[in-house]
Amino acid sequence: MVVQPTMIISFLTGCVQQETSALVRVLTQGLKIVTVVMVAILSVSGSIWFFDYWQDRELAGERGRPVIVQVAPEDDAGAVSDKLTDAKLVQFGWYFEGRMRFSDVDLRPGTYTLRTGMGVMDIIDTITVQTTFGAEEAAEEVVQEPFQVTFIEGQRAEEFGAQLEAAGMPNGQAEFMAALNNPDIRAGYDFLDGVPDDASINGFLFPDTYNIPADSEAADVVYYMLDTFDDRVTPEDRAGFEAQGLSLYEAITLASIVEREAAVREERPTIAAVYLNRIEQGTVLNADPTLQYAAGTPEEWWPTLGDAELAMEGPYNTYINPGLPPSPISNPGVASIQAVANPADVDFQFFVAKQDGTGEHVFATTYEEHQQNVCTYNPPACEGAGLPPSLAAAPVTGGRWMLV
Asked: Strands 350-353, 361-364: parallel, antiparallel or unpaired by DSSP?
């Protein structure tokens, strides 16, 4: 048989066509697989993006509120996830944990200032380090130790600001005082609704010992203190204020006076009762601390009172104005707050310091009983030494004369 050139060409053409068809089928199948994979990737990425976006929208009402989170050396993704959900920084711990496990990062122990409304990946970026760059070395370089500051019961906001600056926050006092008047800070706290717009939130800055992350600002510290107040002043306390006929603002104002007046913890409920009895009677409180607050200066925030201070005009002179002063004068601790919520069941109207170094007082129901106590514990006052005739042998509280 003679093979014709046309036969060879036809054979080769057929082979090429078959190979081309096979190649096309392979490429088509490959493209289908790639397309499916790409669609799957885009779907997953889009779902993750939408999930992050949705979570951010859900938390948008409290966006920017600082929260202290501590990552301990022994913590794993699950432990941190629990902390974040407890702090309401993430809504679904399993989602954070999943994103954490699929990221090429290690947890970086430290104390962090996180903020509500942060995205999950923002949180992960803040509290982790890339494993490829050496987690231990990076952690030592980046994470700074928190500083500790103790705010003392009975101090005013200005003293807290000075204490914050002394603890290591540059310009802490000025920034702290500015933050107290920032309306954005008040917005997240319902218990501040009763504070007048032109008033400071002095009184609601809960005194305690705080570990402050090194990256915190003064405004963050205000948030921490307000959060602590909201946590420590319980629903039972607030119900107690209502039972005394006091709003929360009035109750904290009274507690701020009790804090400055009482030196002995056990006496706080009795001192609170004396003032509440006087408020009920519609008479003056005659509380030295309110005048000290009005007369205080950066040189001496709580000065010793003299005749000039006692004669001061203004709403904080509780020797001439009946009822409570217009605002808290200090930041009370939990004992004084609870004393106002649960005052002693007594009819006392007066008290006088024993003047024996114990800080204790003697209480009386009647003016005559109180006169006798004055004569017993403060004989010069009993004799009316150095007093105008109209004030001789008048009731006294905290070492001062009490007008009736």
From this structure: antiparallel
Q: Is the pLDDT of residue 5 over 70?
A: no
Residues near 373 by beta carbon (within 8 Å), at least 6 away in sequence: 350, 352, 362, 364
Are both 75 and 201 inside the same structural domain?
Answer: no
**CA pseudo-torsion sign 375, 381, 387, 390:** negative
pTM of the predicted protein model: 0.74
Residues 275 and 379 in one domain: yes
Cα dihedral 290, 292, 293, 299 in deg (nearest 10)? 180
The distance from CA 180 to its chain's CA centroid, rounded to whole angstroms, is 12
Residue 18 lies inside a defined structural domain of this protein: no
Confidence check: pLDDT of 96 > 50: yes
Region 376-387: mean pLDDT is 66
Question: How confident is residue 28, by pLDDT bands cut at 50, 70 and 90?
Answer: low
Residue 349 confidence (pLDDT) above 60? yes
Same domain assignment for residues 293 and 178: no
Note down the domain range covering 209: 147-232
Q: Indicate whether 396 and 279 sit together in one domain.
A: yes
Percent of the chain at pLDDT > 70 equals 75
d(CA 99, CA 97): 6
Long-range CB contacts (within 8 A, 24+) of 104-108: 104/130, 104/131, 104/132, 105/129, 105/130, 105/131, 106/131, 106/135, 107/71, 107/75, 107/76, 107/77, 107/80, 108/71, 108/135, 108/138, 108/139, 108/142, 108/143
**pLDDT top residue among 205 and 38:** 205
The pLDDT assigned to 329 comes to 98
Task: Work out the percent of the chain whose per-residue pLDDT is above 90.
Answer: 45
DSSP assignment of 338-363, as one string?
Answer: HHHHS--S----EEEE--SSS--EEE
**DSSP letters spanning 250-298:** HHHHHHHHHHHH-SSGGGHHHHHHHHHHHHHHT-B---HHHHHHHH-BT
Residue 303 lies in a domain: yes
SS3 category, 55: helix
